Amino acid sequence: MNYAIVDTNVLVVANQKAPQASPTCVIACIQKLRQIQQEQILVIDDSWRILNEYKKQAYEVGQPGVGDAFLKWVLVNQANRDRCHPIPITPQENSFAEFPNDPALEKFDPSDRKFVAVALTHPEHPAITNAVDRDWYEFQQSLESHGIQIEFLCPEICKP
Predict the structure, then answer these.
(1) What contacts 150, CB < 8 A, 6 or more positions away?
(2) Residues 85-114: pLDDT tens digits?
(3) Are 148 and 119 in contact (CB under 8 A)?
(4) pTM greater than 0.85 (yes/no)
(5) Residue range 59-82, pLDDT digits in tens
(6) For 79-118, b where at least 16 C-beta lie within 10 A, e where not — what string?
(7) Distance between alpha carbon 84 and the CA centroid of its chain, in Å?
(8) Which CATH number, 2.60.120, 3.40.50, 3.15.10, 3.40.1350, labels domain 3-158?
């Protein structure tokens, strides 16, 4: 099976709500979300932390954007193990027990730690897909040293 984890910014870009995203970046995000829906299994946490973040940035009704349609698809399929894998993660103050205890990651965005915790907990350690969040690039080496893979859909935006 091919698994995926998706940072919320991918939905935002697919909805054309990120002004820094080029048309090429928007197309890459749209294609990735459609690929997940057709060919992959989305990995999320079992306490809806990721889904709730998606819901803050996209419309549950599935319109008008591709990111909105993806959110609706996730909500419809979140209990279908052939489409989504909910993973338990353990919350701690501003982080998760599964997040690496590494001084190099102290300043990593607390709101993105749930994606790392899910990636490390899932047996396949799927890559985290990012569009325009530069933190993933800034912390890439430290994250990779802990087995975290990051898929950059818009590297021209993330890299300085």
Answers:
(1) 127, 128, 129, 130, 136, 137, 140, 143, 144
(2) 999 999 998 899 999 999 999 999 999 999
(3) yes
(4) yes
(5) 998 889 999 999 999 999 999 999
(6) eeeebbbbbebeeeeebbebbbeeeebeebeeebbbbbbb
(7) 13
(8) 3.40.50
